[in-house]
Amino acid sequence: MRTGQIAKTAAFCACALLSFSSVSAATAAAPIKIGAIFGVTGPAAYLGAPEEKTARMVVDDINRNGGILGRPVQLVIKDSGANAEKAISFAKQLIEEEGVVAIIGPTTSGESMSIKDLCQKAGMPLISCASAETITSPIAKYVFKVPPKDNYIVEWLYATMNKMKISKIGVIASNTGFGNGGKAQLEKYASKYGITIAISEVYDANATDLSALLTKVNAAGVQAVVNWSIEPAQSIVAKNMRQLKMGQQLFQSHGFANIKYVEAAGEAAEGIIFPCARLIVAGQLPDSNPQKKLLVKYNADYKAMYKEDASTFGGHAYDALNILKAAIESAKSTDADKIVAAIESIRNFSGTGGVFNFSNADHNGLEMDGIVMVTVKNGKFVPYEGN
Amino acid sequence: MRSELFVQYLISGLIYGSIYAAIAIGFNIIYNATGIINFAQGEFAMLGGMIASSLAPSMPLAVAVAVAVALTAAAGIAIERVFLRRVARGGVLKMIVMTIGLSIVIREAALLAWGESIRTLPFFSGNEVSSVSFLGAHFSPQIFWVAGAIALISAGLSLFFKFTLVGKAMRGCAASRDGASLCGIRPDGMVTLAFGMSAGIGAMAGCVVAPLTQTHYAIGSELAIKGFTVAAFGGLGNSVAAVVAGLFMGMLESFSIILIPEAYKDVVTILVLLAVLFLKPSGLFGSRTAGALKEY
Amino acid sequence: MRRYFPVVALVLFAFALPPLAAATKTAFLLTQATMSAYYALASLGLCALMGYAGQISLGQAGFFAIGGYASSFISTRNLDLLASTPFVRLLDLAGLLVRGTDSYGAPLLSPSPWVSCLCAVLLAAGVAALIGTPVLRLKGHYLAMATLGFGIVIEKIVRGTKALGGADGISGVPAFTILPGLEVTGGRSARSANFTIAWLVLALGYLFLVNLFGSRSGRALRALHDGAEAADAMGVDTARYKLKVFILGAVYAAVAGILLTHYNGSIGPGEANAMKSVRYVAIVAIGGMDNLGGTLVAGLALNFLSLRGVFGSLDDGVFGAVLVFVILLAPEGRLDLFRGKARRTISGGASRGAQS
Question: In this structure, which of A81, C37, C152, C233 has its CB flanked by the most CB atoms within 10 Å?
Answer without folding.
Answer: C37
